[in-house]
Amino acid sequence: MAAFAALRPFPPSGGSGTAPELMQSAADLARSVLPIGMVAGQWTRRRPISWISLAAILISLFSLLPLAFIIWIAVQTGWETVSALVFRPRVGELLVNTLLLVMLAVPICIVLSVALAWLTERSDLAGARLWAWLSVAPLAIPAFVHSYAWITLVPGLHGLWAGVLVSVVAYFPFLYLPVAAALRRLDPALEDAAAAVGLGPWRVFRRVVLPQLRLAICGGSLLVGLHLLAEYGLYVFIRFDTFTTAIVDQFQSTFNGPAANMLAAVLVTCCFVLLGIEVLVRGEERYARVGSGAARQQQRTRLGRATLPCLLLPVITTLLALGVPFVTIGRWLVAGGADVWRLDEIGLALGQTLFLALAGALLATIAAMPMAWISIRAPGPLQRLLEACNYIVGSLPGVVVALALVTITVRIALPLYQTLFTILVAYALMFLPRALISLRASIAQAPVELELAAASLGRSPLKALWSTTIRLSAPGAAAGMALVALGIMNELTATQMLAPNGTRTLAMAFWAHSGEIDYASAAPYALIMVTISLPLTWLLYVQSKRMAGR
């Protein structure tokens, strides 16, 4: 009772106590009634951390299966066979194709995205908000639908430059989003100071603005590069060979032979090289400012006579990235007429797609919860190591994850081969980082004092976590689930290799019809995928605005 007497009393019902006072009183109550050694910091480190950390460790170790599989296969195959499969002309050709694709497409995406971001965020370009949304909208169109649209419009479009063109229009929004967000958050006082010492607009941008965009450019470039390495359908349409297309071809012809596994090993190495280059280029410079900065927005630059030439850039980009797909899909729908709308087949594909997307998103979100919790409540070396494991494995192409699970199930757990469990596990491994990022942001906004107060009322750690933090993080969990679901709906290679017999998602149905050159029958599936994805893309755009306080 002495502990209760020492407490500052709660304000009476209907009193004037503020929310911070109530929260502090709850925390005081928790500290008073918890046993010795179970006060706030120790409670979070001794009781819930034990099982949550264990869950996070187990999930992280499980997520390393694809990487461990590649290493294990290389060891089992033997150095002589590995060297014969890796050091051959075909692998050199694929490596040259991949390097040229990345070295050409990524810089073009950088220039295009930075130019569009500056025009929509820093200039007086007419309709800037509309052009900003249209610069994000191409994310709603799967990359293989972009390729389908271009190859049906220009049948002779093949080879490296075709791959660069379609890759740029499909993936540049991954760079535009972070660059535009970074431009919104920059302190205008820095640019004013540079202009005050006599620097012209171009030199201010080059010496002040561009260096502050380095993190956004590096992160966006990494995303684009990883997507280029992982993409399959886009390059099959335009007949451009990459490691991913070669791996799928080898798998289909030899059913998971050593050649496919060694190509996967080279592809994983390329992914790690990209990650290393991004770390080196990013550097360790400080980008945060001390203080709140200038309490005003940057004045937009007047384009003057350059308005019309500058307007051409977003117009042409929109026509290439959105106009071509929508016009092509519409043309094939008109050509096919009502016959292409086979509602029974479309309804079945839509139902299976939504089921897999929701089930996979739910599993990925549940798996991400322990890691997200300890990243906020118990940061430290273990947390950083586990989080890095999840992000590294999440960067692996879907075909590598699928190939690993195929081998494991066939050799060790044959009853699990091509089952619903296996395909959902693949989705969870591939898209776990998407759920983790959203959950971590939401848990950070849930006060730990609420968990302490719930525990002080006699609830177990699990029930206290469920009734407070998990419920408060529900909006972030929903956003993460939506991002994962979008990725699952557009996933093709892993679904083809792992889905149970009889599975036919929207992406698989589209691929089957387009593979038979029946482009009219493929058009309804492309339209439905884009229609489902557009609202989520709009949410991403709105969220990027909110993060910048707009």
Outline the secondary-structure elements.
Blueprint: H1 2-5, H2 19-33, H3 40-46, H4 48-63, H5 65-77, H6 79-86, H7 89-122, H8 128-136, H9 143-153, H10 160-171, H11 173-185, H12 188-196, H13 201-212, H14 214-230, H15 233-237, H16 243-254, H17 258-282, H18 307-336, H19 343-377, H20 381-394, H21 398-411, H22 420-443, H23 448-456, H24 461-472, H25 474-490, H26 493-498, H27 506-515, H28 519-547
Summarize this structure as a short list of keywords or feature phrases.
550 residues; mainly alpha; 28 helices; 0% strand; disordered N terminus
How does this model look, in words?
The chain has about 550 residues and is mainly α. The chain is built from 28 helices and no strands. It has helices at about 1-5, 20-35, 40-45, 50-65, 65-75, 80-85, 90-120, 130-135, 145-155, 160-170, 175-185, 190-195, 200-210, 215-230, 235, 245-255, 260-280, 305-335, 345-375, 380-395, 400-410, 420-445, 450-455, 460-470, 475-490, 495-500, 505-515, 520-545. Helix 4 packs parallel to helix 20 (about 380-395). The chain starts with a helix and ends with a helix. About 40% of the residues are buried.
